[in-house]
């Protein structure tokens, strides 16, 4: 029962998007393992494949029209141990960076937009490129790789000179790790997992575009934020309105009528300048004041 309580606590904690994403992927993975075992021993393999058809992304547009939610569910679904382990490790390592510098909302936006972009590129490729015509009828896709690669490339675009210490290799700048993963996906775009690797490239592209647009002052995830906030509001009770009387003397001493809550919050222009400095010179080049502003911005998100 303590495991269930730990899961409940994780979802109740604020500013915990990275752990929630990993936990959702793991829960879906475990549930599918159990259901696969039960269905194989009862109704056979066909029963499990029928179940999967409601969460995996099919390359046929007609199937997608009847199950549009699969454009989302596919990037929370894994079947192989190595598949989910590799994806979740990369999500954790690179997601920590994105979360630290940009905040939880932008991490979630990257994950969702990367998965959607990967799915759309997969559908377009399998339906408009002649090489894939014979495969399109029976092709399906699952896995969070496109979402994860979007976060990897976003982190590398934002902090290209940040280094990870890799086992047996030593310190490596993350821009080279991202480049290696992109080249690996390009090389696999004509193999047995062509659809998956094509989706990876869609995620990588959205990761790069997301950061470049953010540095120009445009947040591609803003429409998603509005959707998330709407659905979040449906499951939270609004506090009852309470009218109180406060003496005007409480505001004496405030210059220019400004509230103290707004003091110290950096503007978007200041954050963009700091992000540009990180991109060109690395996080270590920031002053103590700039680091504090970046921290305040991430808390605000």
TrEMBL record:
SUPFAM superfamilies with a match to the protein in the record: Rhomboid-like
Organism, scientific name: Pontibacter burrus
Domain Peptidase S54 rhomboid, residue spans: 67-211
Gene3D superfamilies in the record: Rhomboid-like
Main subcellular localisation: membrane
Transmembrane residue ranges: 21-43, 71-95, 107-129, 141-162, 174-191, 197-214
Membrane topology category: Multi-pass membrane protein
Example GO BP: proteolysis
Protein name per its UniProtKB record: Rhomboid family intramembrane serine protease
Highest taxon of source: Bacteria
One Pfam short name: Rhomboid
GO-annotated molecular function: serine-type endopeptidase activity
One cellular-component annotation, GO: membrane
Subcellular location: Membrane
């Amino acid at each position: 029962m303590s495991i269930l309580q730990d899961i409940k606590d994780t979802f109740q904690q604020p500013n915990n998007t990275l752990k929630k994403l990993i936990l959702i992927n793991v829960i879906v993975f475990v549930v599918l393992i159990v259901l696969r075992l039960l269905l194989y021993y009862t109704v056979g393999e066909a029963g499990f494949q029928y179940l999967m058809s409601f969460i995996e992304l099919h390359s046929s547009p007609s199937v997608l029209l009847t199950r549009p939610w699969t454009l989302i569910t596919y990037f929370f679904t894994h079947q192989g141990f190595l598949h989910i382990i590799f994806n979740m490790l990369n999500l954790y390592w690179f997601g920590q960076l994105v979360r630290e510098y940009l905040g939880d909302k932008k991490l979630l936006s990257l994950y969702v937009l990367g998965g959607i972009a990967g799915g759309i590129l997969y559908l377009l490729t399998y339906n408009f490129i002649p090489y894939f015509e014979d495969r399109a009828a029976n092709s399906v896709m699952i896995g969070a790789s496109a979402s994860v690669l979007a976060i990897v490339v976003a982190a590398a675009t934002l902090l290209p000179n940040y280094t990870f210490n890799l086992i047996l290799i030593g310190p490596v700048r993350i821009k080279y790790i991202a480049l290696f993963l992109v080249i690996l996906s390009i090389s696999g775009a004509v193999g047995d997992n062509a659809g998956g690797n094509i989706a990876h490239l869609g995620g990588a592209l959205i990761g790069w575009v997301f950061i470049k647009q953010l540095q120009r002052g445009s947040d591609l995830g803003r429409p998603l934020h509005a959707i998330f906030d709407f659905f979040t509001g449906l499951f939270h009770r609004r506090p009852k309105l309470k009218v109180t009387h406060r003496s005007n003397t409480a505001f004496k001493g405030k210059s220019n009528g400004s509230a103290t809550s707004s003091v110290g919050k950096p503007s978007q222009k200041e954050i963009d300048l700091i992000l540009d400095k990180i991109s060109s010179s690395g996080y270590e080049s920031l002053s103590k004041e700039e680091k504090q502003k970046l921290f305040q911005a991430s808390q605000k998100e």
